[in-house]
Amino acid sequence: MIVQRVQLGDELAVSPIGFGAMALTPVYGEVDDTESLATLHRSVDLGVSFIDTANVYGGGQNEKLISRLLAERRDEVTLATKFGITGNPIDGTRGSRGDAAYVRQAIEESLERLGTDVVDLYYMHRRDLTVPIEETVGAMAELVAAGKVRHLGLSEVTADELRAAVAVHPIAAVQSEWSIWSRDVERNVVPTAAELGVGFVPYSPLGRGFLTGTIRSTADLAGDSGFRRALPRFADDALESNLAVVRVISSIADEVGATPAQVALAWLRYRADALGVASVPIPGTRRAARVEENLGSVSVELSAQQVAALDDAGAAVSGNRFGDLSWTSAGRE
């Protein structure tokens, strides 16, 4: 299938919807590698060829899974991976590292696991506050010069950090959480990206599955790793309150003949256009059918009134998007 591409920053063109491969690790439930690989192939078949992984996902196992796709279809994939998170974010033993020596070590390890000689988009996954961002991005720029990386990205950075990075090397994209119920990046980060010509890649654009309407209570989270249950928005009282957002999304989905997931993704497209930033969300899924559903969002049209209703619903969300806000750009602004 041929789909129109979106140009992010630094002349990086990608499919209008990406694929967040973290979902293919046992974060939100058990996974099967055979099914996961089939889902990845179906994604590329459909034209969803912007595949996003990270060295920390599954302790490197996610990159190894992606390598099986790349072994057959490397020239069809725009590959993004990340470095910078150490430990295990799922059990709370997370840290970050951004020194130049680690940047060089991390790319070599990722390239080996991925079975490729170049990464199309290489992200700093989290900021190491003990290291000047200029050092981290300077080391990343050396990887571009060496031909190991084509474009640079940053995840969960503040507007000031983005400006400092762009002064060192062109940045193709900022990746941060952004959705109907996670809009803190709109205050400073998204406008700065738009000003600097940097693209934006929203992760968790479906609210970690909540905005699809498939999660009605904490009982629906029983199969996952416990990660979502530790997030403030998924606590019992907050979750019950936040179902109001889902009801608005579902109502509008009925009006336009789409699914709630498609409406949530379409809202992001309208919001990015309004803020003047090139944006490509990366929803994740274990199911091939969901990839097709997500891609269908690019043709969903919303009225100004419907967009406004979704804006209002998102503004009423209860609970922060993460327990430790220092782990997000909003906690450092």
From TrEMBL:
InterPro entries associated with the record: AKR (IPR020471), Aldo-Keto_reductase (IPR050791), NAD(P)_OxRdtase_dom_sf (IPR036812), NADP_OxRdtase_dom (IPR023210)
SUPFAM superfamilies listed in its UniProt record: NAD(P)-linked oxidoreductase
Gene3D superfamilies: NADP-dependent oxidoreductase domain
Record's protein name: Aldo/keto reductase
Pfam families, per database record: Aldo_ket_red
Domain named NADP-dependent oxidoreductase: residues: 16-313
Entry superkingdom: Bacteria
Annotated keywords: Oxidoreductase
Transport is among the record's keywords: no
